[in-house]
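User: Please run a holo structure prediction.
Assistant: Happy to. Please share the sequence and the ligand.
User: Here you go; the ligand is cobalt (II) ion.
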Amino acid sequence: MVELHDQTFRDAHQSVLATRLRTEDMLPICSKMDEVGFHSLEVWGGATFDVAIRYLNEDPWERLSTLKQNMPNTPLQMLERAMNIVAYRSYPDDIVKTFIFYAKKNGCDNFRIFDALNDLRNMEVPIKTVKDVGGHAQGSLCYTISPIHTVERYVEDFKKLEKMGCDSLCIKDMAGMISPTRAYDIIKGCKDTGIKIPIDLHSHNTSGMTGLSYMRACDAGIDILDTSISSLTGSTGQPPTESVVAALKDTEFDTGYDMSILMEIREYFQEVWKKYSHLHRQAAMRIDPSVTVHQVPGGMLSNLVFQLEQQGAGDKYDEVLKETPEVRKDFGYPPLVTPSSQVVGVQSVMNVLFGRYKKITNDTKEYFRGMYGKPPGEISEEMYKKILGPNWRDEVIDCRPSDMLEPQFKKRKDELEEKGLGSKPEDVLTYAIYPEIGLRFLKGEAKAEFTSDQLPLKKPEEKKEVVRRPEFPMDGKVKVDGTEYDVKMKSGETIVVNGKEYSISVLFPSSKDKQNPKNKPKVDREAFKVSAPMLGTILRIPVNVGEKVKSGDTIAVLEAMKMENDITSPRDGAIASINVKEGQDVEEGDVIAVLE
Ligand code: CO
């Protein structure tokens, strides 16, 4: 018998609906989901925590406890990014331990623990903590293809994870590229070497061969397979639950699940799918065997499309996909999964937009310093020098990243209390992990993009129809690519050009465009302006007005595509003015500060 771990409430919508599924659209179907008898249900962790506080104005802790109340019979699982928990960088041990304690307390039974670099040192504390609080620890290794990621290496590492106390193991094929043969060889290898604990295979449809891989996994003795209800799958989603149940029926692997319950669930989510139609993306629905070449995971693919569109660079998608494997090789072949997928993805975007390693993100530097863990393969000295400078050896650590960090929970708790926001441990954790957006959320200043009762929203026009940066506003006229159109405004949110509706957010010109180049004073001061290189949010401004700065000093830290970027001074000078606030959203070209 094979059991299924259902991903509908977590990875399914993370992969095909930009992680936007709201709790109120999960609740009506919970009792049915609980009735199926799944091995477990993944409902939490991964990107769902971030998205809930950033875009949905939902408390992720409340979601977890509510789901547990509504599904008391099935073990609930979270995806836990080892020392990165549910974010993108390392946290100290006390934060990781406290987080796991409260996750368990709020209803999480099973913890799928993985490290983006498969650095087992980063998995020790979470595995031990899950065992200490009475949870089920699933040790997971990211599946990837590279000259150094051999079957033997996987089997060895899984053996180590079993020794470390894991209750089960998981092959996490986040890009959906595991071939039938590789799946068979790794699972068979594990079983033959005497691994006793159950093994789970997590994959995505992306390559088109995943169904075959699941079958071969069964032949090799797999215990658990990851699936999602068919209505919320697609290319970047998981193999459909109902299809896998049907395929294994009347074989030795039969799940024994009741197909009629699954059909009811399917119908429910078909309506949900329609409601979220504004998030449908064709690219996320098409099978793409080229994933075996560029190795970009499903969740990253759909986010990359979104992010490039936000930067007004949707047409650079193919170039970025080509750059990604090159960057990955330079980085020592990290598997592409959060957060390494973000580090490699954003650096690839930077390389395409500004030239190879002309702009290096903070996160790339941190990666090379070893602050994400040990890169799986060798990195050349030349690359280290390029990223960290000639004294790179002094900067690279050889211990576990979290060993460099001071305990943080008490400090964060005191800070939150001082701000008058109480000291509820769950809130302290939200704040500790997401100091900026978590605080905004806890203050009640977060805004929901939409609520369930507002759906469906109007779908944005297809990409090729998007009009970029017309001169606006112009007495009811808008100029697009030299042609003038009559326009009328609608409630400040949409604009109609030639009878077609466009989202106004795409149309606002940046402040750079607002200036008429003819009137631009040709004075030297112009060169002293420091502007935002891209759309994003100002996280920190470490300088004050009047302060002297040197060329290369950080003037502001801009968060774009979930990654931090230093905006540095182009020359020596003093800060004449700071034109933005911390927490402010900026567009490409907006002036951050003026130097004199
Ligand atoms: Co996945």
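The chain has 24 helices and 20 strands.
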